Amino acid sequence: MNSPKSFTNLQLAALVVLRFFIGWHLLFEGLSKFVDPNWSSVGFLGESQGIMKGFANWIISNTGVLAVVDFLNIWGLILIGASLILGLLSRGAAFLGFFLLLMYYLNVPPLTGFEYPVPAEGNNLIINKTLIEAVALFVLAIFPTGHIIGLDLFRKQMRRKMN
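Request: output the structure for the sequence above.
Response:
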């Protein structure tokens, strides 16, 4: 793989800005769910019509499992978002964020013939903002943006000093 030195400063800055923006979005989504005492994933899971429909229905039918899924969803969003913003364990956070958003996408995919009670934002067919953000996280996961600007750079420098 190319080292960060083979990319221009503008390219690297663009990747860091993308990491920060997606981190901000995920952190804010997690915090908004955290402060809402009535929030639950049951509404979203109830709309599932994708290949995850059976799994979503199983989660909804088990209150204990639903509570765990809600907890993991909230804290996953918060921790992934914070990690991306800080550039701390950013590759792992980007991969986890990719898989989380892919799960969202597979539950409520924008496919012809699926009707959802809540209207979609815009007109989508196959590709929507959730899938785009998931793919962007995958791209971020393969670039060491935390080693460019972020706490991962600090960790890397500390490891060098210790060796």
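The radius of gyration is 18 Å.
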